[in-house]
Amino acid sequence: MSLVSLEADLHIALERNEFRLLFQPIVDLHGPRVVGAEALLRWRHPWKVCLAPKEFLGIAEEAGVIVPVTRWIIQRVCRLAAEWRRRLPQPVNFYISVNLSGAVLRDPELRDYVARSSRRPAHHRAFEVRSLPKAA
Predict the structure, then answer these.
(1) SS3 for 30?
(2) pLDDT score at 136
């Protein structure tokens, strides 16, 4: 599969609902108990089984689709977090970690988008910043 083909497919992957989130537990070793989860993006490409982020996020950033993909992640995570909070016994401080790229952090609408999506006070929101691997 060529980079050009992969980039073209990325532009329509959101419309085709090809992205999936997996969640890796975050454990408090003093408890031990699960205190949160890290959201992990996967792309169920129609010609491949499942692509890991290192195979497409660099291309998504270069192609300019990383912001809409990240907004999809944020919206989905906020919805799931609200659902999980309703189901967990109170008071549980459960959180979901979302990794953001530099391009997303430069999005001037990021703060407002997160605030609208989460409907939670600012101190309930935290994002982790990691560099993305460059496309091969």
Answers:
(1) coil
(2) 45
